[in-house]
Write a structure and sequence with these properties.
Radius of gyration of chain B: 16 Å
CATH topology of chain B: Mth169, Chain: A
Shape of chain B: elongated
Order of helices and strands of chain A: EHEEHEHEEEEHEEEH
Number of helices of chain B: 2
Number of strands of chain A: 11
Largest sheet of chain A: 9 strands, mixed
CATH topology of chain A: Rossmann fold
Number of strands of chain B: 3
Radius of gyration of chain A: 16 Å
Shape of chain A: globular
Helix content of chain B: 25-40%
Strand content of chain A: 25-35%
Order of helices and strands of chain B: EHEHE
Number of helices of chain A: 5
Structural class of chain A: alpha/beta
Number of domains of chain B: 1
CATH superfamily of chain A: Class I glutamine amidotransferase (GATase) domain
Strand order of the largest sheet of chain A: 2-1-3-4-11-10-9-6-7
Oligomer: heterodimer
Structural class of chain B: alpha+beta
Strand content of chain B: 25-35%
CATH architecture of chain A: 3-Layer(aba) Sandwich
Largest sheet of chain B: 3 strands, antiparallel
CATH class of chain A: Alpha Beta
Largest interface: A-B, 21 and 11 residues
Distance between the termini of chain A: 19 Å
Strand order of the largest sheet of chain B: 2-1-3
Chain lengths: 232, 83
């Protein structure tokens, strides 16, 4: 069974949601505290959403220096799977595991609502269960979600197919890009597809009570990726 | 010796700064004229022990590169005063 470590920083608040979503997808999931120094043989490390260290200084800026992040860096360097959701994405960018940065939403307000997304790349640890071009509706909840990078970095992300998920353009019946992200980017990965960060919250879209279950595919992707990787 | 170090961090030029824009609009609404541009960042004040002013500045620069500023989105300036 796939072992999924869900990291907990002071101020994490989607940690339980991420754990449940991974369990429902058939994974063996457990929490790892930020002061711990190893991931206990995890196949996947998930950095959940929330406000680690109160978002002091910048979102993710202090969490990246937590002891557990050294283990995450090692895990990623060895080709291990790492997923950052919302605040977790911010931490991965601050840690240099993914390029770019997440800054204040273009319209300044905190945005908490469902958005429409397109899956742009499917051979990643967090999207392997999707087909390219699949559309999903899942919620966002962030104040600092605008993905920015210099033009060269953006061009490289596109050239290397490292854009994983995009917000849909505005249109009839569409909940579009909520934060002004460059090139409608909602999630990116490293070239290998083993480190993925995204702003929306698939862990909050796995149950009929949550209005949409479109988030389930992200968590079933974890095992789908593993069997895909096993075949290589 | 102790030095007082003032670090100013501002959004990089060219990057959309919605806070700066909002303040710009608010100043205009209050009747302040002549404002050409507003950037909103943050100030960090440190009291720093160092052997010399140069050493204090070099030390602060490393702090900025490592933690106080994000090299992707922010620029910083450092000003050192003898305490």
């Amino acid at each position: 069974m796939l072992r999924v470590a869900v990291l907990r920083f002071p101020g994490s608040n989607r940690d339980v949601d991420a754990l449940r979503a991974a369990e429902r997808a058939g994974c063996e999931a457990y929490f790892v505290w930020h002061r711990d120094t190893n991931l206990q043989s995890a196949d996947v490390a998930i950095l959940p959403g929330g406000f680690s260290y109160g978002d002091y200084l910048r979102s993710g800026a202090i969490a990246r220096f937590s002891p557990i992040m050294q283990a995450v860096q090692r895990h990623a360097a060895e080709g291990g799977a790492v997923v950052g959701i919302c605040n977790g994405f911010q931490i991965l960018c601050e840690a240099g595991l993914l390029p770019g940065a997440l800054v204040r939403n273009a319209r300044l307000s905190f945005v908490a609502k469902p958005v429409d997304l397109e899956i742009a790349r499917t051979d990643t640890v967090f999207t392997a269960a999707f087909a390219g071009g699949d559309k999903v509706r899942i919620p966002v909840a962030h104040g600092d979600g605008r993905f920015v990078a210099d033009r060269g970095t953006l061009d490289r992300l596109e050239a290397e197919a490292c854009v994983v998920v995009r917000y849909l353009q505005a249109g009839a019946g569409v909940e579009p890009n909520p934060n002004g992200s460059d090139r409608n980017i909602a999630g990116i990965c490293n070239p290998a597809g083993t480190v993925v960060g995204l702003m929306p919250h698939p862990e909050n879209a796995i149950d009929p009570l949550q209005g949409t279950q479109d988030g389930r595919g992200f968590f079933t992707s974890l095992a789908a990726w593993q069997s895909l990787a096993g075949r290589r | 010796m102790t030095f007082r170090v003032h670090v100013r961090v501002v959004p990089r030029a060219g990057l959309l700064d919605p806070q700066g824009q909002a303040v710009d609009h608010a100043l205009g609404a209050l009747g302040f004229t002549g404002v050409k541009r507003v950037r909103v960042g943050r100030a960090v004040e440190l009291d720093l022990a160092a052997a010399s002013k140069d050493e204090a500045e070099a030390h602060a620069r490393r702090m900025c590169d490592r933690l106080l500023a994000n090299p992707v989105t922010e620029d910083y300036t450092i000003q050192v005063e003898e305490d």
